Amino acid sequence: MSECLTYKDIDGLPDELLAQLNISESDRKDMLLVDLIEKHQPISLNHLLIKIWKKTGKIETKTKLMARLYRLSVNKKMIRSVDGRKGVYEVKS
């Protein structure tokens, strides 16, 4: 995922432009999650599922969301779990 672009930058852009930017669907989902977590931090997994649905109209499975959050926290180091609170996330500062 491009470190320079955020979900705010790409939200509402036409698919043709997104294709030119080489932003994958996976990158878009990552950007959306980081944006939602940043706006509502700390945020629980359940609240994140609701926010995703309100923003996109799509229902994300808890298992897939947990896997994506794990990758964002461990591999990409963009978010982190809140110490002492299971299933609660915030943007890494």
Describe the structure.
The protein has 93 residues and is mainly alpha-helical. The chain has one domain: Winged helix-like DNA-binding domain superfamily/Winged helix DNA-binding domain (Arc Repressor Mutant, subunit A). Helix content is 56%, strand content 10%. It contains 5 helices and 3 strands, in the order αααβααββ. A 3-stranded antiparallel beta sheet has the order 1-3-2. Strand 2 and strand 3 (88-91) form a beta hairpin. The longest helix has 16 residues, at 25-40. The chain is globular and about 45 Å long. It starts with 6 loop residues before the first helix and ends with a strand.
List the helices and strands and how they pair.
Elements: H1 7-10, H2 15-20, H3 25-40, E1 43-44, H4 45-56, H5 62-75, E2 79-81, E3 88-91
Antiparallel strand pairs: 1-3, 2-3
Order of helices and strands: HHHEHHEE
Judging by the overall fold, what is the CATH architecture? Answer: Orthogonal Bundle
- Output the radius of gyration: 13 Å
Structural class: mainly alpha
Regions with pLDDT < 50 over 5+ consecutive residues? none
- How many helices? The count is 5
The percent of residues in helical segments reads 55-70%
CATH topology: Arc Repressor Mutant, subunit A
What is the domain tally? 1
Q: Per DSSP, what share of the residues sits in E-state strands of 2 or more residues?
A: 5-15%
Mean pLDDT: 92
The side-by-side strand order for the widest beta sheet comes to 1-3-2
Number of strands: 3
What is the CATH class designation?
Mainly Alpha
Please tell me what the overall shape is.
globular
Q: Tell me about the biggest sheet? A: 3 strands, antiparallel
